[in-house]
């Protein structure tokens, strides 16, 4: 006998992803970055991960150094940049994958002058609202949801 699953598979096609409005910080204190959260309770039937796509513009695009309880993975879709993790800089480019342990200080900087830096992010939690960004600078921005 096959048991019914409470959580169902989720498939988002490119048209649906393109229709998701980008989010960002209400002021530049968190950095020059936008993101689209694609998988997250309660928007989608998920119980393990939160995932989305983030983007930094050429030249000045960045996400300031911060920490959060959840581990995170970045997969670089486009561009090149630097990801400092606990004071060690890691060069990344299209095809790179990065595991960031929970509570590790990290950020990201677009080092290209020509193209966006775009990455898939995955948090080890089922809801984006569970991720509390603790920025290394005094002023802590709040994400616009």
From TrEMBL:
SUPFAM superfamilies found in the cross-reference section: RmlC-like cupins
InterPro entries: Cupin_2 (IPR013096), GPI/OXD (IPR051610), RmlC-like_jellyroll (IPR014710), RmlC_Cupin_sf (IPR011051)
GO MF assignments: metal ion binding
Residue ranges annotated for the Cupin type-2 domain, each copy included: 57-123
Keywords of the record: Metal-binding
Protein name: RmlC-like cupin
């Amino acid at each position: 006998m096959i048991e019914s699953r409470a959580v169902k598979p989720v498939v988002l096609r490119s048209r649906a992803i393109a229709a998701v409005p980008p989010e960002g910080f209400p002021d530049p204190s968190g950095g020059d970055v936008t993101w689209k959260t694609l998988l997250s309770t309660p928007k989608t039937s998920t119980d393990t991960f939160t995932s989305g796509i983030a983007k930094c513009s050429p030249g000045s695009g960045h996400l300031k150094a911060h920490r959060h309880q959840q581990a995170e993975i970045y997969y670089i879709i486009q561009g090149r940049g630097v990801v400092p993790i606990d004071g060690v800089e890691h060069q990344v480019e299209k095809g790179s994958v990065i595991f960031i342990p929970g509570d590790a200080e990290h950020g990201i900087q677009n080092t290209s002058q020509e193209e966006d830096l775009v990455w898939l992010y995955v948090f080890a939690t089922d809801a984006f609202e569970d991720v509390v960004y603790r920025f290394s600078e005094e002023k802590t921005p709040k994400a616009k949801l």
